[in-house]
# Entry
Amino acid sequence: MDILLYILAGAGVGLAVGITGVGGGSLMTPLLLMFGYPTHIAIGTDLLYASITKASGVVAHHRQQTIEWNIVAKLAAGSIPASLLTTWLLATFFTDPTDYNHILVSTLGVMLIATSAVLLFKSKIRGFWSTNLIKDQTFIHQHTTAIVVSMGAILGFCVTLSSVGAGAFGAAILLILFPALQSVKIIGTDIAHAVPLTLLAGAGHMFLGNVDFLLLGCLLIGSLPAIQLGVKFAKHLPEKVMQPALASILFVIGLKYAFF
# Structure
């Protein structure tokens, strides 16, 4: 019965991801915590889940030429070392996963709140930065590489600790730094960066013993076909209703974990 429940959970999250476009991390990890999984297992398993489910999206966006690979490389130059460093810190300074669970939970809460804010105000974010930054982008143009690498490092740290942020939050960073970039290229570039980041972060948690492979398999069995179904449903459902509703749920859950 548990296996069936996890397959259905994967299907439910996959359906939501297909409909809303929101990354599975912000949905799957809280769900696994509700099922009673320890925080480190929920986050470690979800990171590998995210890397596998997003991989097909990279292939599709690459074919459509909607990935800015130079931006992906700069983000990864910050996020990959940050993820490795975070894993090393957890392995070095904590002898047992329960010793750093409070760090994972608090980071998860903060990232869920940040993700909900991005979903609710992304149009205003784009409008604000495009009208204000476009007046004087000298500083950004002169330091683009350093800024993008730094933002990647922040993402690498947060995603490794929470499994949340590689999707909506990463896209928000790209919105701010590259307001002239087409929405489809922001999505494609964000996904292309999320796959290696979540894969490496997941591998780090696997090294720490924080991955349940039976659970991972069940989630993938349910979610992979459900994502495709959700994409078809998305054409007939109003995004202006679905994403705010989801954002509100994430905000409430985030408040709960941020102040754990």
Summary: The chain has a mean pLDDT of 84. The chain has one domain: 2-258. DSSP finds eleven helices and no strands in the chain.
